[in-house]
Every structure is written in C-alpha cells, then in structure tokens.
C-alpha cells in the first residue's frame, strides 16, 4: 500500500509512518519542513502546507490512503487542526484518493453518555484548546459529503505515553474509551500507531470514530 503521512515528523505521525514502513508499505512523509525524522529512513519526504488544498492534492496523488496527524502550537484556538481536516477532505477529492485516516484527540470521548471528557472541570485547561479543535475536526469529517472513506482514531483522553508496540491493545468503535476491568485507560504511542495501520490494512471503521487502549 502507498501511504502518505501528513505530520510524519511529529511523535504520533512518525510512529504511524515507522509502523507502516516496518510492515513493508511505501510511505511518503509529508511535513511543513520536509525534513524526515531519523527513524523514517526509507520514506520519501515532501514539504507541504497541510492547509493548502492544491499543494496537498499534488503531494498525495497516486497514494492509496492519506494519514493526517497534526498538532498546533501556533494559534490560541489550534485552528490548524480543523483546517487540516477540511483541506485534506478537499485534497483527497481533488486527487481522487479514496481513504483518509485522521489521528485525532481523546478529549471528545465520553466520560458518560453525552458528557465529553473535555467538558469536565477536571480536564486540564492547557489541553482544552487542542481537544476542542480535534473535536471540530471530527465534526467536519462527519459532515463531509464528498464520498471520502474516512476514519478517525481517538487515543484515550489521558495516559497516551511514548512506548514501543506490544500488540496487547484493543479497539472499538464509538465515543467511549477502551478501559481495563478497573476502569483505567491508556496506551503507548507504538500501539496506537499499530492500531491505525491495522485499520489501514483491514478496515473495520469506515466513516466512523474508533479508539484504542488496553
């Protein structure tokens, strides 16, 4: 499979790109700088502005799937995140690429039916703007009528930590986090990346949000 990863120099995007490379896929690493992380040797690297529809369409043409994993530390409301979702949908339609996988946030998962973690007073204030921006990106995907086959992966709302793949994770569709028998949740970045590449290889969550955890 030929996979374009937007945000491949970030820690989650890089983990996804590395997992895909290890499984034998052809990876194009897209980032604003075009500079690959050292671990992405073997990936083609391209500099592109994720919010520029025409440039993004040119960069992803000929790929089977596009992964978007972006963050934003430059704007107070983290507006690049939903802007990247909007641009990706338009670029995929223009480039005739049928599949989009968006690495989103966990704050919009539900602590209880109809109650998001991000809306809880206990949710860390410093993470709220990004969580809300990621929720906006999910809303844009859900409202899309272009025919792009998207999926949105939410990590747990807390306890997403750096770490290698163990293969011991579970996945499920919907707005509730994956929890252990004691109600705890968490996942390492290597396992989150593996869960996403699993979905690319064997789709289960077409035009749905899913989440992964232990």
Account of the protein in words:
This protein has a single domain (2-213), classed as Rossmann fold (3-Layer(aba) Sandwich). The mean pLDDT is 93. It has helices at 11-22, 53-60, 80-95, 128-143, 189-201; strands spanning 2-6, 26-31, 44-47, 65-68, 99-103, 110-112, 115-116, 149-154, 160-161, 170-173, 187-188, 208-213. The strands form 3 sheets. An 8-stranded mixed sheet has the order 3-2-1-4-5-8-12-10, sandwiched between helices. It has a two-stranded antiparallel ribbon with strand order 6-7. A two-stranded parallel sheet has the order 9-11. The chain is an alpha/beta fold. It is built from 5 helices and 12 strands.
Q: What composes the largest sheet?
A: 8 strands, mixed
* Name given to the CATH architecture: 3-Layer(aba) Sandwich
Approximately how much helix is present in the residues?
25-40%
Rg from alpha-carbon coordinates = 16 Å
At the fourth level of CATH, the homologous superfamily is NAD(P)-binding Rossmann-like Domain
- Proportion in β-strands: 15-25%
Measure the end-to-end span.
28 Å
> What structural class should be given to the helix and strand makeup?
alpha/beta
Could you report the average pLDDT, rounded to the nearest whole number? 93
Q: Spans of 5+ residues with little confidence (pLDDT < 50)?
A: none
**CATH top level label:** Alpha Beta
The quaternary organization reads as single chain
| Spatial strand arrangement across the major sheet | 3-2-1-4-5-8-12-10
Looking at the structure, what is the overall shape?
globular
Continuous helix count: 5
Give a count of the beta strands, DSSP E runs of length 2 or more: 12
As for the CATH topology, it is Rossmann fold
Integer count of domains:
1
